[in-house]
Automatic annotation (TrEMBL):
<dbReference type="InterPro" id="IPR041607">
    <property type="entry name" value="HU-HIG"/>
</dbReference>
<feature type="domain" description="HU">
    <location>
        <begin position="1"/>
        <end position="125"/>
    </location>
</feature>
<dbReference type="InterPro" id="IPR010992">
    <property type="entry name" value="IHF-like_DNA-bd_dom_sf"/>
</dbReference>
<protein>
    <submittedName>
        <fullName>DNA-binding protein, histone-like, putative</fullName>
    </submittedName>
</protein>
<dbReference type="GO" id="GO:0003677">
    <property type="term" value="F:DNA binding"/>
</dbReference>
<dbReference type="Pfam" id="PF18291">
    <property type="entry name" value="HU-HIG"/>
</dbReference>
<keyword id="KW-0238">DNA-binding</keyword>
């Protein structure tokens, strides 16, 4: 199934007087839930959907805990997750404390398998 996109105009913020250019903007089209993943894995193996769901829940819970502990989580050739954040600046190194951290987010880095699959992706303008 192709990846959907719509078309949006964007102005150059450095040249506001110039007309906008149009760009492809990839949009989500549907969703896959943890239940969907368990159902698919159950259909592909002899393990029940309930057992797979329990394993997935446990695995993702451990991933969340490890990211919160500052670990980089490597999930085979699939992806890597780690914490990242932004902070306010200080004049002196000694002045920087945990209070300077203003936001934290999870950084997702696709692995070889996902990168290779995306190279083969096709695209379709959303109607």
């Amino acid at each position: 199934m192709p990846i959907k996109f719509n078309v949006i105009p964007k102005k150059n913020p450095q040249k506001r007087d110039e007309p906008a250019k149009y760009y492809a903007n990839i949009v989500g089209d549907g969703k896959t839930t943890l239940n969907d993943l368990a159902k698919h894995a159950g259909a592909m193996s002899t393990v029940s959907k309930a057992d797979i769901l329990a394993v997935l829940e446990s695995t993702f819970s451990k991933i969340a805990e490890d990211i919160a502990d500052g670990k980089i989580v490597y999930v085979g050739e699939y992806f890597t997750l780690q914490a990242s954040g932004s902070s306010t600046g200080e004049e002196k190194e000694k002045s920087v404390t945990a209070a300077n951290i203003k936001s934290v987010k999870a950084v997702f880095r696709p692995g070889k398998m996902i990168k290779d699959t995306l190279k083969l992706a096709t695209f379709q303008k959303k109607a």
